[in-house]
Design goal:
The chain has 405 residues and is α+β, with helices and mostly antiparallel strands. Helix content is 47%, strand content 13%. Helix 1 runs antiparallel to helix 15, helix 3 runs parallel beside helix 7 and helix 5 runs parallel beside helix 15.
Length: 405
């Protein structure tokens, strides 16, 4: 009976492999459509210190927003990342308003500090320059186809050793719902400068926010979904967060060498790294090292954020995806196995259009699966809308589809 079952399994695997192999590789690539910014952002297309270009492009995976600010022009890759960037701009405006109050003016004068200059030299963050047709996420898919112990890993730079400033930065960022280790240079500089004045003048966060005309309501958006530091790490230094992340990953049997590369990757903020470790701890999937190894290779801030969003997505939707039990590497991507052994590929895309890069990456995944004797149709799940062309092509290659919220 065992032999018969094995033969049946083999035949099923060969049948699925044949289905995938005979699926036409040739394709008519589509161009990801542009959409009005207002249809995505509503009234957030313009703020006190930003203007979003009226149309939004896509690279087939995520939306590419063009953003004009007094601190330079930027491209923001990904809808969730855009939400976070707008919250950072709100926070930056609040910091400017704080710096113009009498409370700060008196503190600056008393301490003999120079006035705060926001934007400084209008440095353009190199991580997201304008005009790129493809995000770091798209490039990642394209390439895949073709304190003592951790003192050296601190992200607090010189302010780590200055009493009061590091804590003021974290507390201020927490109240403004942003990440104190943000990659957005104007905000990072602004947080540091305002925190220095707060420390010198012994100004509490509540006093600083209360000094703003209109109070705390001006400081943050009550409906913001942007994420800064979570409560468990609010009062921890960056080195302490690294130690906590390392401990969580060790419990998941991630090799020390892999963890070291991951925590030293400066494209992640300590908050991002903690969020990934938390999500993987919640997921409790075998071979989490496969995910961390690939996350450690992120070569840009948008890729690092994408890896965070993906880890959070997997933890949130594990049950709906069949209860994810294991990370399973296919074509250099850390996909998953569900409780029944089925393959699951889940990604937080803004949308999926059958562009050349999407076609190449998904065809590569399908062809590699064809060599592994899979007996179940793999599941492709994403948060964004899948175009009709992409749906048809994925189904030709044997994939089942699921939309996540």
């Amino acid at each position: 009976m065992g032999k018969i079952a094995q033969m049946t399994r083999t035949r099923l695997g060969l049948a699925l492999a044949t289905l995938i192999v005979i699926a036409p590789v040739a394709h008519s690539a589509e161009i990801a459509p542009e959409v009005p910014a207002q249809s995505i952002l509503g009234g957030d297309t313009k703020g006190a210190n930003w203007t979003v270009a009226p149309t939004v492009r896509s690279d087939g995976f995520v939306r590419l927003f063009a953003l004009e600010t007094p601190y330079g022009d930027f491209q923001v890759n990904g809808q969730r990342r855009m939400s976070e960037r707008l919250q950072e701009l709100r926070a930056l405006k609040s910091l400017e308003e704080m710096s113009n109050t009498d409370v700060f003016a008196n503190a600056v004068a008393k301490a003999g500090l120079a006035p705060i200059r926001f934007g400084r030299d209008l440095v353009l963050d190199p991580v997201e320059t304008t005009g790129n047709l493809v995000s770091g996420i798209g490039n990642m898919f394209d390439r895949a186809v073709s304190e003592v112990e951790h003192a050296g890993e601190s992200r607090d730079s010189f302010v780590e050793s200055v009493v009061g400033i590091k804590k003021a930065m974290r507390d201020l960022a927490f109240e403004l719902r942003v990440d104190p280790y943000t990659d957005f240079t104007p905000l990072r500089d602004g947080l540091e400068d305002v925190a220095r004045v707060m420390a010198a003048g012994d100004i509490s966060v509540s006093a600083a926010i209360s000094a703003i005309p209109g109070g705390a309501g001006v400081a943050v958006s009550a409906t913001s979904s942007a994420s800064g530091l979570s409560n468990p790490i609010r009062d921890k230094s960056s080195a302490e967060i690294v130690a906590l992340v390392s401990s969580r990953l060790k419990a998941l049997e991630v090799p020390d060498a892999t963890t070291e590369v991951f925590v030293k990757n400066a494209h992640y903020s300590p908050g991002d790294q903690f969020a990934i470790a938390e999500a993987l701890t919640t997921l409790k999937a075998d071979n989490s090292a496969a995910f961390v190894l690939r996350a450690a290779q992120a070569d840009g801030a948008d890729v690092a954020k994408f890896q965070r969003y993906r880890a959070e997505l997997l933890a949130k939707h594990s049950a709906r995806l069949g209860t994810l039990k294991e990370f399973y590497v296919v074509a250099e991507f850390a996909l998953n196995r569900d409780a029944n052994g089925g393959l699951v590929a889940a990604f937080p895309f803004d949308g999926l259009s059958w562009t050349d890069t999407v076609a190449k990456s998904m065809t590569a995944l399908s062809q590699e699966l064809a060599t592994r004797g899979e007996t179940k149709s793999p599941l492709f799940a994403t948060t964004g809308k899948v175009s009709s062309s992409a749906q048809a092509e994925l189904k030709k290659r044997g994939w089942k589809l699921m939309t996540l919220d």
